[in-house]
Design goal:
Strand order of the largest sheet: 1-5-3-4-2
Strand content: 5-15%
Oligomer: single chain
CATH class of the largest domain: Alpha Beta
Order of helices and strands: HHEEHEEHEHHHHHHHEEEH
Radius of gyration: 40 Å
Helix content: 40-55%
Largest sheet: 5 strands, mixed
Shape: elongated
Structural class: alpha/beta
Number of helices: 12
CATH superfamily of the largest domain: Conserved hypothetical protein from pyrococcus furiosus pfu- 392566-001, ParB domain
């Protein structure tokens, strides 16, 4: 028969040793030699594991959000994101406008459309100090300002903020939009080219036409230059220039090249003009009274080369234009208010210089 082992009560030192062991290696079973985490530690580990899976999902969403944000910033930088801008922060006269006459019937239709449907196509502006300068959308901005007088919904307008500045890009944007939305008249095309030169945006009318109407054919650009000449010579006296047909404008340009400017200006200054028909009759009579230049016989060979000279700006705001050919120099003085006496003195000084 096996001898029974006699159990002895452990002393205090032994108990402290066992207690220290349990504290160092917590286990569900005190007699299990392998360490095991307590239940609370297992719950924490499982939660951490699940949280890790959630983090992966969040990272995918975060990456998508960051990509969307980058695309949005790129679109905003490119001026493709419309912003609501207060009307009083927009300078409508930031650049000279190409449109001269507004159709009030068309404006009434636009006002009604805005009341019912709102604005579907934002205007275009560029930053100008603390405000914004209007590039395109003059009619829409004008309509909003009219409506804002009685309806607070129209105190701000959707706008694309472009980085066009006040240079060539701003003028190109304006002309392109108006050509697409409602064709400019032939006279308005020529006029805006002259105005852009006057503001120093282009060095010459030739350059302005080539850039502003780059998409047009060579023949169309030639017609724009003819109307630019009409505006330079008669623009301050014409009362119904937009009504000039293409044929009429080209006829006027031909007469101006032939030296009829003085006769045409005198006729316009003295006439009582009430409507486009009356004004054209005055111009036709003046052209008939002007001497017709004798056409030079063409003997063949290379065509005569005409070189435009760089315009010279005057302190008073005018511009001197010139063209050089093998047998002549053409000088055109663009200076409003020049008297006959001043013009004669200019000719005398020029003759003195050449003698």
């Amino acid at each position: 028969m096996a001898k029974r082992r006699r159990l002895a009560t452990p002393d205090t030192a032994k108990l402290e040793e066992l207690e220290a062991g349990f504290a160092a290696k917590p286990s569900l079973n005190p007699f299990d030699a392998t360490a095991s985490a307590p239940p609370i530690a297992q719950v924490a580990a499982e939660a951490a594991s699940l949280n890790g899976m959630t983090t992966v999902t969040d990272r995918v969403a975060l990456a998508k959000d960051q990509n969307d944000a980058a695309l949005w910033r790129d679109a905003q930088s490119a001026g493709l994101v419309a912003e609501m801008l207060p009307l009083d922060q927009i300078d409508a006269e930031y650049i000279r406008r190409d449109r001269m006459v507004e159709d009030e019937e068309a404006m009434a239709e636009l006002l009604e459309s805005l009341r019912v449907h709102g604005l579907r196509t934002p205007i275009e502006v560029t930053r100008n100090g603390e405000g914004f300068g209007l590039i395109s959308g003059f009619r829409r901005l004008d309509a909003f300002r009219r409506l804002a007088q009685t309806d607070q919904r129209f105190l701000s307008i959707p706008a694309f903020v472009r980085e066009a500045g006040s240079g060539q890009g701003a003028y190109v944007s304006m002309v392109e939009e108006n050509e697409l939305r409602s064709n400019l008249s032939p006279y308005e095309r020529g006029r805006i080219a002259v105005l852009a030169v006057g503001q120093g945006i282009f060095d010459s009318t030739e350059a302005a036409v080539d850039v502003l109407f780059a998409a047009a054919s060579k023949a169309k650009r030639s017609k724009v230059r003819s109307f630019a000449m009409v505006h330079e010579a008669l623009g301050d006296l014409l009362q119904h220039p937009v009504a000039l047909s293409e044929k009429a404008g080209l006829k006027l340009a031909a007469a101006l090249r032939g030296g009829a400017q003085t006769k045409l200006r005198e006729a316009l200054a003295e006439a009582d003009v009430f409507d486009p028909k009356t004004e054209w009759a005055v111009l036709e009579d003046a052209m008939k009274a002007s001497p017709q230049p004798h056409a030079k016989k063409v003997r063949g060979g290379r065509p005569q080369q005409v070189k435009p000279l760089k315009p010279v700006k005057l302190d008073g705001g005018g511009v001197l234009h010139g063209e050089l050919s093998p047998d002549e120099v053409r000088i055109r003085v663009q200076l409003p208010g020049l008297s006959e006496e001043d013009a004669n003195e200019l000719l005398r000084q020029l003759a003195k210089h050449l003698n």
